[in-house]
Protein backbone atom coordinates (compact mmCIF):
# COMPACT_ATOMS: atom_id res chain seq x y z
CA UNK A 1 0.00 0.00 0.00
CA UNK A 2 1.18 3.51 -0.75
CA UNK A 3 0.51 6.42 1.60
CA UNK A 4 -2.73 7.43 -0.14
CA UNK A 5 -4.10 3.90 0.22
CA UNK A 6 -3.03 3.75 3.86
CA UNK A 7 -4.71 7.11 4.49
CA UNK A 8 -7.96 5.74 3.08
CA UNK A 9 -7.65 2.67 5.30
CA UNK A 10 -7.01 4.80 8.40
CA UNK A 11 -9.94 7.11 7.72
CA UNK A 12 -12.32 4.21 7.10
CA UNK A 13 -11.10 2.46 10.28
CA UNK A 14 -11.73 5.60 12.33
CA UNK A 15 -15.18 6.02 10.78
CA UNK A 16 -16.03 2.41 11.59
CA UNK A 17 -14.39 1.90 14.99
CA UNK A 18 -13.52 5.33 16.34
CA UNK A 19 -9.89 4.25 16.92
CA UNK A 20 -6.97 2.69 15.08
CA UNK A 21 -3.93 1.15 16.75
CA UNK A 22 -0.37 1.17 15.42
CA UNK A 23 -0.02 -2.66 15.52
CA UNK A 24 -3.32 -3.17 13.67
CA UNK A 25 -2.42 -0.53 11.09
CA UNK A 26 1.04 -1.99 10.52
CA UNK A 27 -0.36 -5.50 10.11
CA UNK A 28 -3.24 -4.54 7.82
CA UNK A 29 -1.08 -2.33 5.58
CA UNK A 30 1.94 -4.63 5.72
CA UNK A 31 4.31 -1.90 6.87
CA UNK A 32 6.65 -1.47 9.84
CA UNK A 33 5.21 0.06 13.04
CA UNK A 34 7.53 3.03 12.51
CA UNK A 35 5.91 3.69 9.13
CA UNK A 36 2.45 3.47 10.70
CA UNK A 37 3.47 6.01 13.35
CA UNK A 38 4.84 8.37 10.69
CA UNK A 39 1.58 8.07 8.75
CA UNK A 40 -0.43 9.01 11.84
CA UNK A 41 1.91 11.93 12.58
CA UNK A 42 1.49 13.20 9.01
CA UNK A 43 -2.30 12.85 9.15
CA UNK A 44 -2.37 14.64 12.49
CA UNK A 45 -0.54 17.61 10.94
CA UNK A 46 -3.20 17.56 8.22
CA UNK A 47 -5.89 17.73 10.92
CA UNK A 48 -7.36 14.35 9.98
CA UNK A 49 -6.54 12.37 13.14
CA UNK A 50 -5.61 12.92 16.77
CA UNK A 51 -2.76 10.75 17.97
CA UNK A 52 -3.15 8.97 21.32
CA UNK A 53 -1.08 6.37 23.11
CA UNK A 54 -0.68 3.39 20.76
CA UNK A 55 -2.67 4.76 17.85
CA UNK A 56 -5.09 7.51 16.86
CA UNK A 57 -8.67 8.68 17.24
CA UNK A 58 -10.72 11.14 15.19
CA UNK A 59 -9.76 14.78 15.77
CA UNK A 60 -11.53 16.37 18.73
CA UNK A 61 -12.95 19.82 18.16
CA UNK A 62 -14.88 22.17 20.36
CA UNK A 63 -18.40 20.88 21.00
CA UNK A 64 -19.81 24.01 19.38
CA UNK A 65 -18.12 23.06 16.11
CA UNK A 66 -19.32 19.52 15.55
CA UNK A 67 -19.11 19.87 11.78
CA UNK A 68 -15.31 19.48 11.95
CA UNK A 69 -15.44 16.13 13.68
CA UNK A 70 -14.51 13.28 11.35
CA UNK A 71 -15.57 10.32 13.49
CA UNK A 72 -18.61 8.20 12.73
CA UNK A 73 -21.34 10.73 12.03
CA UNK A 74 -24.68 8.95 12.37
CA UNK A 75 -27.74 10.01 10.46
CA UNK A 76 -29.45 12.82 12.34
CA UNK A 77 -33.10 11.86 12.19
CA UNK A 78 -34.64 15.14 13.26
CA UNK A 79 -34.45 18.11 15.61
CA UNK A 80 -35.58 16.04 18.59
CA UNK A 81 -32.54 13.82 18.21
CA UNK A 82 -30.21 16.83 18.22
CA UNK A 83 -31.23 17.79 21.74
CA UNK A 84 -29.37 16.53 24.77
CA UNK A 85 -30.92 16.60 28.21
CA UNK A 86 -28.79 17.84 31.10
CA UNK A 87 -27.51 15.33 33.64
CA UNK A 88 -29.82 16.71 36.34
CA UNK A 89 -32.84 16.14 34.08
CA UNK A 90 -31.84 12.66 32.92
CA UNK A 91 -31.21 11.54 36.49
CA UNK A 92 -34.96 11.61 37.10
CA UNK A 93 -35.91 9.57 34.02
CA UNK A 94 -36.47 5.79 34.01
CA UNK A 95 -35.12 5.50 37.55
CA UNK A 96 -36.59 2.05 38.18
CA UNK A 97 -35.17 0.63 34.96
CA UNK A 98 -31.73 2.10 35.58
CA UNK A 99 -31.59 0.69 39.11
CA UNK A 100 -32.59 -2.76 37.85
CA UNK A 101 -29.98 -2.58 35.08
CA UNK A 102 -27.33 -1.58 37.63
CA UNK A 103 -28.11 -4.55 39.89
CA UNK A 104 -27.98 -6.95 36.94
CA UNK A 105 -24.71 -5.43 35.70
CA UNK A 106 -23.02 -6.13 39.01
CA UNK A 107 -23.35 -9.85 38.35
CA UNK A 108 -20.97 -9.44 35.39
CA UNK A 109 -18.11 -8.05 37.48
CA UNK A 110 -15.31 -10.59 38.00
CA UNK A 111 -14.94 -11.90 41.58
CA UNK A 112 -12.09 -10.72 43.77
CA UNK A 113 -9.91 -7.64 43.24
CA UNK A 114 -10.36 -6.31 39.72
CA UNK A 115 -10.06 -3.15 37.65
CA UNK A 116 -13.19 -1.41 36.34
CA UNK A 117 -13.56 1.53 33.94
CA UNK A 118 -16.86 3.38 34.12
CA UNK A 119 -18.27 5.81 31.55
CA UNK A 120 -20.24 8.95 32.33
CA UNK A 121 -24.03 8.78 32.39
CA UNK A 122 -26.98 8.41 34.71
CA UNK A 123 -27.20 4.64 34.23
CA UNK A 124 -23.53 4.19 35.10
CA UNK A 125 -24.16 6.45 38.12
CA UNK A 126 -26.87 3.98 39.13
CA UNK A 127 -24.25 1.23 38.85
CA UNK A 128 -21.94 3.24 41.13
CA UNK A 129 -24.76 3.55 43.66
CA UNK A 130 -25.35 -0.22 43.54
CA UNK A 131 -21.63 -0.88 44.02
CA UNK A 132 -21.56 1.49 46.96
CA UNK A 133 -24.53 -0.20 48.65
CA UNK A 134 -23.25 -3.74 48.12
CA UNK A 135 -19.91 -3.18 49.89
CA UNK A 136 -17.92 -4.89 47.12
CA UNK A 137 -14.36 -6.16 47.42
CA UNK A 138 -12.26 -3.30 48.71
CA UNK A 139 -9.40 -4.31 46.43
CA UNK A 140 -11.18 -3.14 43.28
CA UNK A 141 -9.78 -0.24 41.24
CA UNK A 142 -12.21 2.14 39.54
CA UNK A 143 -11.33 4.58 36.76
CA UNK A 144 -13.99 6.98 35.49
CA UNK A 145 -14.48 10.27 33.66
CA UNK A 146 -17.75 10.93 35.51
CA UNK A 147 -17.76 13.28 38.49
CA UNK A 148 -21.03 11.82 39.84
CA UNK A 149 -19.68 8.26 39.59
CA UNK A 150 -16.47 9.24 41.40
CA UNK A 151 -18.42 11.10 44.08
CA UNK A 152 -20.83 8.22 44.67
CA UNK A 153 -18.09 5.59 44.92
CA UNK A 154 -15.74 7.62 47.08
CA UNK A 155 -18.62 8.91 49.20
CA UNK A 156 -19.35 5.31 50.13
CA UNK A 157 -15.86 4.87 51.50
CA UNK A 158 -14.56 2.86 48.57
CA UNK A 159 -10.86 3.23 47.92
CA UNK A 160 -9.14 2.88 44.57
CA UNK A 161 -11.39 5.47 42.89
CA UNK A 162 -9.61 7.36 40.08
CA UNK A 163 -11.06 10.35 38.23
CA UNK A 164 -9.21 11.11 34.99
CA UNK A 165 -8.00 14.59 34.20
CA UNK A 166 -9.24 16.79 31.39
CA UNK A 167 -11.90 19.40 30.69
CA UNK A 168 -15.15 19.33 32.62
CA UNK A 169 -18.30 19.37 30.50
CA UNK A 170 -20.85 20.90 32.93
CA UNK A 171 -23.88 19.76 30.94
CA UNK A 172 -23.17 16.08 31.62
CA UNK A 173 -20.60 16.48 34.44
CA UNK A 174 -18.18 14.39 32.37
CA UNK A 175 -14.45 14.88 31.93
CA UNK A 176 -13.59 15.14 28.23
CA UNK A 177 -10.62 16.09 26.08
CA UNK A 178 -7.52 14.53 24.60
CA UNK A 179 -5.83 13.76 27.93
CA UNK A 180 -8.90 11.87 29.16
CA UNK A 181 -9.15 9.82 25.96
CA UNK A 182 -5.41 9.13 26.00
CA UNK A 183 -5.64 7.89 29.60
CA UNK A 184 -8.33 5.34 28.79
CA UNK A 185 -6.58 4.12 25.65
CA UNK A 186 -3.56 3.30 27.82
CA UNK A 187 -5.61 1.02 30.10
CA UNK A 188 -6.43 -2.67 29.98
CA UNK A 189 -9.00 -3.07 32.75
CA UNK A 190 -10.87 -6.27 33.55
CA UNK A 191 -14.24 -4.81 32.61
CA UNK A 192 -15.63 -1.55 31.20
CA UNK A 193 -19.15 -0.21 31.57
CA UNK A 194 -20.35 2.27 28.94
CA UNK A 195 -23.53 4.30 28.50
CA UNK A 196 -25.07 5.91 25.43
CA UNK A 197 -27.78 8.35 24.43
CA UNK A 198 -28.91 6.02 21.68
CA UNK A 199 -28.17 2.66 20.06
CA UNK A 200 -29.25 0.98 16.82
CA UNK A 201 -27.91 -2.11 15.04
CA UNK A 202 -27.00 -0.04 11.97
CA UNK A 203 -25.23 2.91 13.63
CA UNK A 204 -24.18 1.44 16.97
CA UNK A 205 -23.87 3.50 20.14
CA UNK A 206 -24.14 7.26 19.72
CA UNK A 207 -24.11 10.53 21.64
CA UNK A 208 -24.66 14.18 20.65
CA UNK A 209 -21.30 15.68 21.65
CA UNK A 210 -18.09 14.95 19.70
CA UNK A 211 -15.75 15.55 22.64
CA UNK A 212 -17.70 13.17 24.85
CA UNK A 213 -17.87 10.63 22.02
CA UNK A 214 -14.07 10.57 21.78
CA UNK A 215 -13.74 9.61 25.45
CA UNK A 216 -16.59 7.10 25.27
CA UNK A 217 -14.82 5.47 22.32
CA UNK A 218 -11.69 5.12 24.43
CA UNK A 219 -13.58 3.67 27.41
CA UNK A 220 -15.32 1.14 25.17
CA UNK A 221 -11.86 -0.17 24.22
CA UNK A 222 -10.21 0.12 27.64
CA UNK A 223 -10.94 -3.35 29.02
CA UNK A 224 -10.88 -7.07 28.33
CA UNK A 225 -14.67 -7.10 28.45
CA UNK A 226 -17.04 -4.23 27.58
CA UNK A 227 -20.62 -4.03 28.82
CA UNK A 228 -23.17 -1.46 27.61
CA UNK A 229 -25.85 -0.28 30.04
CA UNK A 230 -28.86 1.04 28.09
CA UNK A 231 -32.49 1.22 29.10
CA UNK A 232 -35.08 0.54 26.41
CA UNK A 233 -35.79 4.25 25.82
CA UNK A 234 -32.31 4.53 24.21
CA UNK A 235 -32.87 1.69 21.74
CA UNK A 236 -33.74 2.72 18.19
CA UNK A 237 -32.45 6.29 18.63
CA UNK A 238 -29.56 7.84 16.70
CA UNK A 239 -27.54 10.85 17.79
CA UNK A 240 -24.88 12.83 15.99
CA UNK A 241 -21.71 10.83 16.72
CA UNK A 242 -21.28 7.07 16.78
CA UNK A 243 -18.55 6.12 19.23
CA UNK A 244 -18.80 2.30 19.08
CA UNK A 245 -20.42 -0.32 16.92
CA UNK A 246 -22.81 -2.89 18.35
CA UNK A 247 -20.11 -5.53 17.92
CA UNK A 248 -17.65 -3.50 20.02
CA UNK A 249 -19.34 -4.69 23.22
CA UNK A 250 -19.40 -8.16 24.72
CA UNK A 251 -22.66 -7.74 26.58
CA UNK A 252 -25.65 -5.41 26.84
CA UNK A 253 -27.74 -4.96 29.97
CA UNK A 254 -31.19 -3.52 29.33
CA UNK A 255 -34.71 -3.71 30.73
CA UNK A 256 -37.68 -5.92 29.99
CA UNK A 257 -39.16 -3.45 27.48
CA UNK A 258 -36.30 -3.77 24.97
CA UNK A 259 -37.74 -4.45 21.48
CA UNK A 260 -37.40 -8.02 20.26
CA UNK A 261 -35.89 -7.04 16.89
CA UNK A 262 -33.02 -5.28 18.67
CA UNK A 263 -32.44 -8.31 20.89
CA UNK A 264 -32.43 -10.52 17.80
CA UNK A 265 -29.69 -8.35 16.28
CA UNK A 266 -27.63 -8.74 19.45
CA UNK A 267 -28.02 -12.51 19.38
CA UNK A 268 -27.09 -12.53 15.69
CA UNK A 269 -23.77 -10.85 16.58
CA UNK A 270 -23.21 -13.21 19.51
CA UNK A 271 -23.59 -10.42 22.06
CA UNK A 272 -24.71 -11.51 25.50
CA UNK A 273 -27.97 -9.84 26.56
CA UNK A 274 -29.00 -9.48 30.18
CA UNK A 275 -32.57 -8.31 30.74
CA UNK A 276 -33.16 -6.72 34.13
TrEMBL record:
Domain HTH deoR-type: 3-58
Molecular function as annotated in GO: DNA binding; DNA-binding transcription factor activity
Alphabetized UniProt keyword annotations: DNA-binding, Repressor, Transcription, Transcription regulation
Superkingdom, taxonomy of origin: Bacteria
Keyword field contains Repressor: yes
PROSITE patterns according to UniProt: HTH_DEOR_1 (PS00894), HTH_DEOR_2 (PS51000)
Signal sequence range: none
Cross-referenced InterPro entries: Carb_Metab_HTH_regulators (IPR050313), DeoR-like_C (IPR014036), DeoR_HTH (IPR001034), NagB/RpiA_transferase-like (IPR037171), Tscrpt_reg_HTH_DeoR_CS (IPR018356), WH_DNA-bd_sf (IPR036390)
Family annotation (Pfam families): DeoRC, HTH_DeoR
Function: Repressor of the lactose catabolism operon. Galactose-6-phosphate is the inducer.
Full protein name: Lactose phosphotransferase system repressor
Organism of provenance: Corynebacterium pyruviciproducens ATCC BAA-1742
Amino acid sequence: MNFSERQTFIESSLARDGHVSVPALAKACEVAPETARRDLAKLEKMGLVRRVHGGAIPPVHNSDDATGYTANISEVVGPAFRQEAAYSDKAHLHVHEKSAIARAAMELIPPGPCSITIDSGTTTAALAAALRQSSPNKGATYVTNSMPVAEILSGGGLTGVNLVGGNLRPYTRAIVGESAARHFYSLRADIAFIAANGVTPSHGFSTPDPTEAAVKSAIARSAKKTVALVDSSKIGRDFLVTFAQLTTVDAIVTDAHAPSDFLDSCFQYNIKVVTA
